[in-house]
Amino acid sequence: MNVRVYAPLIEVAPPTPSLWRPSPDEDVWLLNLDQVEADSGEVLSIRQSKARDIGTSTVAFDDSHVLYSKLRPNLNKVVLPNAAGFCTSELLPLKPDPCRLDRGYFARYLRSTEFVAWAVSRTDGAKMPRVKMDVLRAHCIPLPELATQRRIAAILDKADAIRKKRHEAVELAEGSIRSAFLQLLGNLPGERVSIEEMLSATSNAIRTGPFGSQLLHSEFTESGIPVLGIDNVVTNRFRWAERRYVSTEKYQALRRYRVFPGDVMITIMGTTGRVCIAPEDLPECISTKHLCTITPDRQRLLPEYLWASLLWDPVVRAQATREGKGAIMEGWNMGLVRGLMIKLPAISQQEHFAAFVRKVEGLRTKFLAAEAESNQLFGSLAKRAFGGQL
């Protein structure tokens, strides 16, 4: 059965400080939207404030409430607080009737893809979109028996826990590579060399373009030679995203911008400083002006080590940030990339690091596949649950 969200199932907490009156010197929990993780609803940090300093634009809550963010519902911030406190008025403390609506079930419903899509479609305001209260009050939710609600919430909690563990595995893999690089970096002497000194002896070993009329958007085709852009690099791993092509004839005119397997690509426009390595099975393709492509001398500098240096060497990142300031659209340029100064380990040390990267990246790929599978399973379970099929 479907029922409306509000009365008699829900009551909205009154303005501060009606729920309880802490003394002015008492430390209280003050929750703002930026402390809530999107989608999961996890509280990222706990901020304590004196009761006298909490301000008037706050609302009291306790552990019987579900906190729902009416601001930017696409961010999907729904909190199950485990203690009493005060929150920004952009969070609505909703108190379910425990005899008819399970708190965990209600929170899961508010986080569901279907409800988020519904809320987003009914927001007002372009810069600060919010869900209107009268619209929210009129929304109907599925309401099975209380025991069924609790069973659904428990199933979704378990599925979500699996999903989180698989995501943590992906992050641990990333962290292990970063830690291995920083350990290697910390054991090296202080001398540095420029990327320009480490380029391949081949012509055009560092390149960006084509520019202006060399490649027009109208010249892209539905098949042919692939053209790589920011979307292929933005995750710091190479991925096939939006497919763009040019004809074989156009490619012949732009061959100097070819990307070879093992090249290191870095974004220099838009989202700057993202880095990836072109895979060994990369077909013939070219890059756009948004990328700077580097062909290192592999006898002295391996792609995996250069990739890690561009991502995690704090000196390199500071240099790029400092020299990139003031550029048009916060862009970098090929001269900046040429001049970046990296530490250079012995090639044997680089080979050991590169082998570690390849091993962990293989595991990370498996973890990502498992995470995608668990996300799909969770979405399917939630859809079935709130569709009365679970």
Task: Provide a descriptive summary of the structure in words.
With 390 residues, the chain is of the alpha+beta class. It folds into three domains: 2-143, DNA methylase specificity domains (Adenine-n6-DNA-methyltransferase TaqI, Chain A, domain 2, Alpha-Beta Complex), CATH 3.90.220; 147-171 and 347-390; 189-344, Alpha-Beta Complex (Adenine-n6-DNA-methyltransferase TaqI, Chain A, domain 2), CATH 3.90.220. Helix content is 35%, strand content 17%. The protein contains nine helices and 21 strands. It has helices at 103-111, 113-120, 133-138, 146-186, 248-253, 303-312, 314-324, 334-338, 347-386; strands spanning 2-4, 10-12, 27-31, 48-50, 58-61, 66-69, 78-79, 85-88, 91-96, 123-124, 130-131, 140-142, 193-194, 206-208, 225-228, 245-246, 264-267, 275-277, 286-287, 291-294, 341-342. Strands 2-9-6-7 form a four-stranded antiparallel beta sheet, covered by helices on one side. It is elongated. The mean pLDDT is 89.
The count of helical stretches stands at 9
What Rg is obtained from the alpha carbons, in whole angstroms?
A: 27 Å
In CATH, the homologous superfamily of the largest domain goes by the name DNA methylase specificity domains
Class inferred from helices and paired strands: alpha+beta
Number of strand segments: 21
What letter string, H or E per element, gives the SSE order? EEEEEEEEEHHEEHEHEEEEHEEEEHHHEH
- Mean residue pLDDT: 89
Query: Shape, please?
Result: elongated
CATH first level of the largest domain: which class?
Alpha Beta
* Level-2 CATH architecture of the largest domain: Alpha-Beta Complex
Question: Gap between N and C termini, in Å?
Answer: 14 Å
The largest pleated sheet is described as: 4 strands, antiparallel
CATH topology of the largest domain: Adenine-n6-DNA-methyltransferase TaqI, Chain A, domain 2
| Integer count of domains | 3
> Ranges with pLDDT <50 over ≥5 residues?
none
